[in-house]
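User: ok so my PI wants both of these folded by tonight, can you help

Assistant: No problem, let's get them done. Here's the first:
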Amino acid sequence: MTVAPDLLQPLSTLHPLLDTNVSTLKAQCFTKRLTGKEFYLSDHYVNQIPTLPGVVYIEMARAAGTLASPDQKVIALKNIVWAQPIQVKDRPQVVSVNLYLETSGLSF
């Protein structure tokens, strides 16, 4: 997942944790705009900064996999590493979930 500042408001959402599908021929990509007012951010602070809980990362990846391939069920997520926390400080952030097809399934 990558984080980029953004001020655009989505018109509709695909899932409560995914706003838009911005996929290309190279990869499936879904985004979510975080304002800091989401209940899962307003209840989870690290060093007094709203921080995305780990379980939300996992649900975003699961939902992205389901949206990318609706006829196949996501049955497992493996080898999850949090390189850095996603925090919403002074302005909204856009989080991207990128999916890549591999021989053993999808990676994100």
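One down. Here's the second:
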Amino acid sequence: MGTVRYTVLDGQILSENRNGVERDYLPDPQGNTIALLDSSQAITDTWKYWPYGEVQERTGTNPTPFQYGGTLGYRRQASTAKAYVRARVLDDTERTVDDPAPRGARR
């Protein structure tokens, strides 16, 4: 598996170092990862998404869990259609959000 280290600034993921290989995250205006760039700024991986975060099109093989909303910290579970959204879980197939806070609770 190896090690992965992320560079984060003001809560936004900027880059990763996966087993000594540096990649920069390229987000769209919503914070979705749309590409990864290598050290020469060449695109190595790309993503296109449907409205609820399902991957519509994907190129490359980087196993990053930070895809839809990824630069903002949303993390996709590889084995399910769910994404960890800070303290909540977004289920792409059910179009629901599991909310750990009781209904009516203030945040």
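The mean pLDDT is 83. Residues 4-72 form one domain. Good luck tonight!
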